[in-house]
Structures are given as C-alpha cells and as structure tokens.
Design brief:
Blueprint (H helix, E strand, L loop, with lengths): L1 E4 L4 H11 L5 E4 L16 H16 L3 E10 L19 H8 L9 E11 L5 E12 L15 E3 L2 E2 L5 H7 L1 H10 L3
Parallel strand pairs: 1-2, 1-3
Antiparallel strand pairs: 3-4, 4-5, 5-6, 6-7
Helix pairs in contact: 1-5, 4-5
Length: 186
C-alpha cells in the first residue's frame, strides 16, 4: 500500500519508512507525490495540527495520507514547548533554550515527555487518529550524534535518544509508539 506522508522533514520520513517499510507500506513524501505546499499549523493540539497537514495533502491529491505532529512537553515549564516545539527557538538553538530555562532545576523536577499524534485519512476522506508518548527527563547538556530536534537532551534511563541507534529509538519513541498504533488501523 502506498501512503503519502504529509511532511517535508526528511528525519520524520526516515523514521516512518524504517518502521512501515518492513510491513509492506511504501511511504512517500508529499514532495515525491507532487504536493509542494506547506500547511499552516494553526491548531492548539497535536491532533489538530496533524489533521490540518493531512487534510491539506488529501484535498490536493485525494489519496491515503498520514501526517503527524509531535513535540516535547517539559513539566517544569508547564508543558512547554508543546505544540510550539518546532518554533520554540531558531533552528539549532531549541535544545539550548530548554537547557537555559532549566538551569539549576534538580533532576527530579526535569521530567518530560515526547508526544506524537498521527492523522490518517483514507481514500474516501475519512480521518482516524492515533497517538504515542515517550516518558523521560531533560538532561543537563546535549549528548549523542543520532536523532534530531530535542533528542540530544531527552534522557530515557541514562541515555539520550540521540545516543541510541535508530532501532533502539524507534522501539520506545513517541513516534514509534504512534506508528505501531497506526498499523492497527491500516
């Protein structure tokens, strides 16, 4: 089954392919499908933003499409950056902003989670939603070379997501958990 992923983010595309391709799904990016648009993420929840992105591509191409929206929620920051994770600071400075805002905060108050919501729109235009989460805490410095976004500061156990292999990360990540839920409805 061919599915369009409503994203231009090559890292997200790679993660979806790593999990769905072995199950027989051919995941292509919106650019590969000829949809050169960028939907405005004006929602106030991950689900709303995922739906906005999926609907924009579906309305253009009328084929099955999946879209996700995800982000980091830090308890000490009252859930920030949340749905604004991608816009919390300039690219390349998001981790630094979170670390700066948590300076002096003890480890037991650095709890956080990644959340992911996926919207799947089938060929008839029916939308379904799944979600996933990954609990952890924010470290005190960036560590690791793998992953992207906030992965270098997000600890699960004693390692950051950026210190894990792709298979290790996909087995526990918010997106991996949501994609596994997605396969139940595909």
């Amino acid at each position: 089954m061919k599915i369009i992923l409503a994203t231009n983010n090559k890292n997200k595309l790679r993660e979806f392919r790593e999990i769905l391709s072995p199950m027989g799904y051919d995941v292509i990016s919106q650019a590969e499908a000829g949809a050169d648009i960028e939907a405005d993420e004006t929602g106030t929840t991950f689900e709303e933003n995922a739906c906005i992105k999926a609907k924009a591509i579906y309305d253009l191409l009328h084929v099955p499409v999946i879209a996700d929206d995800s982000g980091l929620e830090v308890d000490h920051l009252n859930g920030a950056p949340g749905v604004y994770s991608a816009r919390y600071a300039e690219p390349g400075h998001r981790c630094e902003r979170v670390l700066r805002e948590l300076e002096g905060v003890p480890d037991d108050e650095r709890t956080a989670r990644f959340r992911c919501a996926i919207c799947f729109i089938d060929e008839e235009g029916n939308a379904q939603f799944v979600s996933g989460a990954c609990e952890g805490r924010i470290g005190h410095e960036k560590r690791g070379e793998n992953g992207f976004g906030y992965d270098p500061i997000f600890l699960v156990g004693e390692r950051t997501l950026a210190e894990m292999s792709a298979d290790e990360k996909n087995a526990i990540s918010h997106r991996g958990n949501a994609i596994r839920e997605l396969t139940k409805i595909l």
